[in-house]
Every structure is written in structure tokens, then in C-alpha cells.
Amino acid sequence: MRRTAARIAFATVSVTAAVSLLSACGSDEPADAGRHADPAALAWADKVCSGVATASAKLSQPPAFDPANPQGTKTAMVGFLNSLSAALDDMAGGIRNAGVPPVPEGQSAVDKATTTLGETKTKVTDTLTKMQGAPVTDQASLQKVVADADTTMSGLSEPEGPIKHLRANAELDLAFTESPTCRQVYGGNA
Length: 190
Known about the structure:
With 190 residues, the chain is mostly helical. The chain has helices at residues 2-23, 39-57, 70-97, 106-133, 139-153, 163-167, 170-178, 180-186. The radius of gyration is 18 Å and the shape is elongated. The two termini are 35 Å apart.
């Protein structure tokens, strides 16, 4: 069960790492005092930061796993996977709803980020479907469900989340760094 909890945590990291990366995305001073982000790129980053904040709110209550209650543990895992799936949808929707970034190669960065989110969501959905249909009556059946979930989630390999694809674009990185909305949503160190 620890490995599956770790895989679920890893999928959560795909979303929360994006939040963490955005949390560090701004400061009171730009990285290069002589260069500033384009206002349209800043507005775009603001929209994305707001979408990530909405997504991360869905993950504020991680499940409690109780080995003495196999059915309750399964139910908690299913509930959390549903929340994770919704958070991934919110994040992808936030990126798409922000529109095409007004920077060179901006659409390419968005495509990579949303592809990463889609791949993660597919793994979460596959795991959720299998987990919902699996009977759990005792520790042995719970361990089977956990092992199956671990196998399904094993392909997740994006610890930095989809925001890394957006921040790989120098112009978008600068916009995230200077975004007032990121600072407001994620605090003074955003």
C-alpha cells in the first residue's frame, strides 16, 4: 500500500509541483532589472496562476489511510483520485482558457504542458476505474487493489509537472516571475 500511496502522492506532485513552481515564480524584483515581461504575457501568466490555484484547492485534504479498515481505505483512495482527476482537469482548463501565450513558441509550450496533464490524467483515470471496480473485503484484497494501482500509476515520471514546459519558454518564464497574480495567489514569495 505504501507504493500506491507513493504513486498517488507522485501524481499529486505533478499538480502540486506546478503550484510550488508557481509559488516561486515571482518576486518583488525581476531577475534582470533591465528586462521586463510583455504586459500581454503577464496577463496570460496571471490567468494560468489563477487556474492552478483552483486546481490545488481540490487537493488540500489528502486521504487518511487506515490499514485496519480496508474498505474505508479504498473509499478514501477513490475519493482522492476523483479530486486529483478534477484538479488535473482544472489545471489543463486554466492553461487552455488562458489562450495562446503571446510569445514566440508559446503554443508549443502549452501543447507540451497540456499533453503532460492529459497523460497524467489518463493514468489517474485508469487507476480510479480499476480501484472502483475491485472488491475489497480484507487486507489481502486491499493489497491487491494497491498493487494494481501501483502498476497502473508506475508510468508517471513528471515530478516537476506541466508548468516546467511553460517555464522552459524564456518569455513565459519571465512573465511567471513578474506576475502580480502569482504573488497575490501564492504569497509574497510567489
